[in-house]
Amino acid sequence: MPLKPREHDAKYGELDQVVRAYLGQPADDDPERPSAALTAYLRHTWQARPGAIATAERQLRDLAENPPGRLRTRLGEYYVLPDVGLPDAEIPGWLLVLAEHLKESVEQGRVPAPETPQTHWEWQARFPELGQLLGGWFSQDMPDEFADHGAALADYLGSTAPSVIARLVGEVHELLALGLDDGDYGLALSELGMEVDPPAPYGAGAWLVRLSAHLTGGAGGTGEGPALRKP
């Protein structure tokens, strides 16, 4: 039978975060240089959950040095590594390289400098509630489910706890604080799951500004009003 959630998290939970940071990214780490994916993992995790890095190192090392035996493989009681584009024979060595980079980061204080997210995983990890809003309410199905962007936002606000909405407000402010140009804000919205264009006449950056104003301006959570409408 598959691993139970508690056993999975205890043995592989943080390892899974590391490996998923490689989805869509090359696993091209070498002993002298971590990949862009691992750098993104370190950059975010140092800021959000620094204690998790040592846990990730231990779990990576354990999996590399103690792969599942035939019995656990037959029963399905093992961690299924996502495809990272490497041959099976190279995976243990790659995991150990990652573990060494994490160890050096902790022991030597090698912390990547803060910057704009560089990978899909990092965008999602840094702005989880904004990703939930954009991916859940502004997907390609939005025009079939809601009259317009305001109606979609009203549905989100009406079904989401105030404390979570407050977290969303902080994430929108943090994204705007990056000071990106409109094209880069468009890329950010796409990475966070938005599959429809912002409402005319707004570009991506201007719509985020209007969204921020709506969330903090007391529009009553209806999704109506000037914040998401044309001037």
Low-confidence stretches: 218-231
Q: Termini separation (Å)?
A: 58 Å
**Tally of individual helices:** 12
Describe the sheet with the most strands: none
Radius of gyration over C-alpha positions, nearest whole angstrom? 21 Å
Helix content: 55-70%
| Helix-and-strand structural type | mainly alpha
Key descriptive features of the protein:
single chain, 231 residues, mainly alpha, 12 helices, disordered C terminus
Mind explaining what this structure looks like?
With 231 residues, this protein is mainly alpha-helical. It has two domains: 5-108, no CATH class; 127-228, no CATH class. The protein has helices at 5-20, 36-48, 52-65, 70-75, 91-108, 120-126, 128-137, 142-145, 149-158, 162-177, 182-191, 204-216. Helix 7 crosses helix 10 (162-177) and helix 10 (162-177) runs antiparallel to helix 12 (204-216). Residues 218-231 have low confidence and may be disordered.
Ordered list of secondary-structure elements with their pairings:
Elements lengths: L4 H16 L15 H13 L3 H14 L4 H6 L15 H18 L11 H7 L1 H10 L4 H4 L3 H10 L3 H16 L4 H10 L12 H13 L15
Helix pairs in contact: 1-3, 2-6, 3-5, 7-10, 10-12
Briefly say what this structure is.
This protein has helices at residues 5-20, 36-48, 52-65, 70-75, 91-108, 120-126, 128-137, 142-145, 149-158, 162-177, 182-191, 204-216. It is mostly helical.
